């Protein structure tokens, strides 16, 4: 895959950065490695240019990203509401990363939509719906972090890609491709990864800090979900699992504890599609979808669960009870039977 950017778009990015001082960077609710990685990487590049920059999140990020450079400067709306609103009022430019619509910033959306400041969007999901002054949307890219790397290079900012930036970008690419298991079947992503490793980052240490940091309660939760909360539906080559509020209380659930759960059933030979439903005391049921081969997880999520994402990895939400969300999933399987059983 060759990334060819509109020269005018690149020049507009350079102009917006050169002509302004205060930058806000935002990304989606329950930020993952690609969201945190692209945000902290871009923020560090701007800081090296002498700019004022803050990463603004809808909610806190998982503990296993706390080692990353620059996360101490992140402001989340759920913990720093007044500071976030004050900073948004002072910003010159908003940079949206790893989102295709502002609604993915949840409660932050209302403050961003009230602002008329310029927006830069860099994203790798389908169906971009953000009105921006400059937008880069490449849904076939492995990750937003890979796009950020290519855009920084296209802007002539390679000299700002230091070891801290490289660690952030590597983290995003690694996590969003499932350690290069999917969305990475083209040479360029490996060239980028090789360049980042060549900058002296400790690849093994990054993997260890992200993947081997959970406690005993999380291990027990994982065991309980797989043993008691997983249902296999062989007629559809599909399955689903759930995490209830009762599970969260029993196993002292922390943000990020369910990371990787939805991928586990994919090791089953005859399973093509799987869902994880997570119940919340307030708000909708969150859904994560994973698929193998030619089943469009993103299409399913968009049509039935107010979501979207990548072909084999998507998410959404259901405005109802956990049981209703599961029933909607089962109904959806029947609707998509032809694509599942072929």
Structure, described:
The protein folds into two domains: 7-210, inorganic pyrophosphatase (n-terminal core); 216-341, Diaminopimelate Epimerase, Chain A, domain 1. Helix content is 39%, strand content 17%. The chain has helices at 7-19, 33-48, 81-90, 109-113, 144-154, 163-176, 187-197, 203-211, 216-228, 245-250, 297-304, 322-335, 337-341; strands at residues 22-26, 52-57, 75-76, 93-97, 119-123, 134-137, 230-233, 238-243, 273-278, 285-291, 308-309, 313-318. A hairpin with a 6-residue loop joins strand 9 and strand 10 (285-291). The protein is globular and about 60 Å long.
Key words describing this protein structure:
single chain; 342 residues; alpha/beta; inorganic pyrophosphatase (n-terminal core); Diaminopimelate Epimerase, Chain A, domain 1; six-stranded mixed sheet; 13 helices; 39% helix
Question: How much of the polypeptide forms β-strand, as a percent range?
Answer: 15-25%
The helix fraction, in percent, is 25-40%
Q: What number is the mean pLDDT?
A: 96
Query: Which architecture name of the largest domain does CATH use?
Result: Alpha-Beta Complex
Q: Please, how many domains?
A: 2
Main sheet? 6 strands, parallel
Shape: globular
Would you identify the regions where 5 or more consecutive residues have pLDDT less than 50? none
SS field, number of helical segments: 13
């Amino acid at each position: 895959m060759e990334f060819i950017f509109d020269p005018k778009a690149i020049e507009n990015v350079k102009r917006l950065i050169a002509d302004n001082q205060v930058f806000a960077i935002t990304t989606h609710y329950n930020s993952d490695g690609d969201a945190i990685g692209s945000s902290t990487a871009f923020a560090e590049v701007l800081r090296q240019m002498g700019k004022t920059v803050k990463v603004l999140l809808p909610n806190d990020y998982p503990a296993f990203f706390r080692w990353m450079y620059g996360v101490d400067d992140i402001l989340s709306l759920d913990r720093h509401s007044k500071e976030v609103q004050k900073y948004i009022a002072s910003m010159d430019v908003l940079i949206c990363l790893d989102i295709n619509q502002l609604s993915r910033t949840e409660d932050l959306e209302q403050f961003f939509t009230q602002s008329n400041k310029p927006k830069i969007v860099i994203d790798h999901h389908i169906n971009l719906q953000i009105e921006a002054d400059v937008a880069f949307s490449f849904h076939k890219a492995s990750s937003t972090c890979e796009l950020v790397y290519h855009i920084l290079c296209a802007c002539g900012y390679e000299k700002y890609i230091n070891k801290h930036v490289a660690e952030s970008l590597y983290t995003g690419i690694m996590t969003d491709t499932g350690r290069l298991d999917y969305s990475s079947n083209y040479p360029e992503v490996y060239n980028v990864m090789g360049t980042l490793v060549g900058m002296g980052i400790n690849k093994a240490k990054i993997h260890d800090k992200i993947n081997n940091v959970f406690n005993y309660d999380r291990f027990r939760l994982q065991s309980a979900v797989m043993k008691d909360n997983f249902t296999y539906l062989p007629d559809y080559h599909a399955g689903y699992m759930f995490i209830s509020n009762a599970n969260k209380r029993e196993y002292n659930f922390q943000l990020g504890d369910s990371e990787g759960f939805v991928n586990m059933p994919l090791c089953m030979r005859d399973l093509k599609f799987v869902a994880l439903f997570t119940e919340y005391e307030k708000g909708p049921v969150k859904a994560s979808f994973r698929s193998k081969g030619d089943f469009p997880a993103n299409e399913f999520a968009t049509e039935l669960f107010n979501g979207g994402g990548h072909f084999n990895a998507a998410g959404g939400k259901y405005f109802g009870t956990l049981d209703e969300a599961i029933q909607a999933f089962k109904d959806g399987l029947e609707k998509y039977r032809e694509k599942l059983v072929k």
